Amino acid sequence: MPTIYLNGQYLPRESATLSIDDRGFIFGDGVYEVTRVVNGVLFESSRHLARLGRGLADMRLHPEESLADIEAISNRLVQENGLQQGEAIVYLQITRGAAPRTHHFPPAGTRCTVFLSAKAITPPHAERAVGVKVVTYPDIRWSRCDIKTVNLIPAVLAKQHAMDHGVFESIFVRESAITEGSHTNCFGVIDGELRTYPASNLILGGVTRDVTIEVAHELGIPFSDRPFHIQDLPRLQEFFLTGTTTDVMPVVEIDGKAVGNGRPGTVTQALYDGVARRLYAATPAVR
Ligand SMILES: Cc1ncc(COP(=O)(O)O)c(C=O)c1O
């Protein structure tokens, strides 16, 4: 049985319990992170922790565990769950804790709920080989999409919309601009230039997005963080998604229309290869 961490204790997953007054349950009042693990090593841990730190500060959450503690707990869960080999993720969630329901913050001294778990995953390499399809969906989210809050209703509805259409992902459209996917960032190649929605309050600044942009710079691929719009879609040469469990994923169809020549593109492949080199740097056997 998997071992999880909850509020200072390492427990078998099935014996972990939470209060029905937990504000994560009542209000979605919390933040989360998902960190990739390859052969027991947390990928880009410091970027995930930095984003978590910003989210905690913006949400005015003050868990007892420091960011260094969180990293140590993550590493211990990887070991205790036998994930030293192969592909895995660590999931983390911190809420404002359990207290009688009030919209305002609970009394001082209420302990934040801190939960971490780790499990093996299978990256979507089969889908990557052929590319995936996506559909557009209105971006009905709030104006702090940069906080990785557990309040994910628009993402849940958008991803279900994708499932209902038998495709991999929904991509959000805000005032005609493609912002990002339900749990991924979006990149397009137009006129030979790689473009993605600028880092702002209207998208989650993905760790994989940042790594992909760094790789683009290394490879000398022209890049601009300018948004592209619905009306630009027919001019797309390539389109792809990035995310912690998705890596770099070519998209070959948007709303039933082919992207470029309808096959994964060469820029996308080069960027995946660059990201994979970092992911699997010390551990080529996993790939
Ligand atoms: C809305 C949204 N955008 C982008 C991403 C990708 O971020 P990362 O690369 O850090 O996984 C996620 C990940 O969950 C997400 O929820």
Proportion of residues in β-strands: 25-35%
The chain-level structural class is: alpha+beta
Percent range of helical residues: 25-40%
Tell me which ligands are bound. pyridoxal-5'-phosphate
Give the CATH architecture of the largest domain: Alpha-Beta Barrel
Instruction: Outline the biggest β-sheet.
Output: 9 strands, mixed
Task: Catalogue the unreliable spans.
Answer: none
Return the CATH class of the largest domain: Alpha Beta
Q: Between the first and last Cα atoms, what is the distance in angstroms?
A: 26 Å
How many H/I helices?
7
Total strand segments? 15
Shape: globular
CATH fold-level assignment of the largest domain: D-amino Acid Aminotransferase, Chain A, domain 2
Task: Quote the average pLDDT.
Answer: 97
State the assembly state of the protein chains: single chain
Overall number of domains: 2
Looking at CATH, the homologous superfamily of the largest domain is D-amino Acid Aminotransferase, subunit A, domain 2
Alpha carbon gyration radius: 19 Å
Task: Describe the protein in words.
The protein has helices at 23-27, 45-59, 67-80, 125-130, 153-164, 207-219, 266-279; strands at 3-6, 9-12, 30-38, 41-42, 87-95, 113-120, 132-138, 169-174, 177-181, 185-190, 193-196, 223-224, 238-243, 247-254, 257-258. It is of the alpha+beta class and 287 residues long. The chain has 2 domains: 3-120, D-amino Acid Aminotransferase, Chain A, domain 1 (2-Layer Sandwich), CATH 3.30.470; 125-279, D-amino Acid Aminotransferase, subunit A, domain 2 (D-amino Acid Aminotransferase, Chain A, domain 2), CATH 3.20.10. The strands form 2 sheets. Strands 7, 8, 9, 10, 11, 12, 13, 14 and 15 form a 9-stranded mixed sheet that branches. The chain has a 6-stranded antiparallel sheet with strand order 2-1-6-5-3-4. It is globular and about 55 Å long. The protein starts with a strand and ends in an 8-residue tail after the last helix. Bound molecules: pyridoxal-5'-phosphate. Pyridoxal-5'-phosphate binds at residues 34, 180, 183-185, 204, 206-209, 242-244.
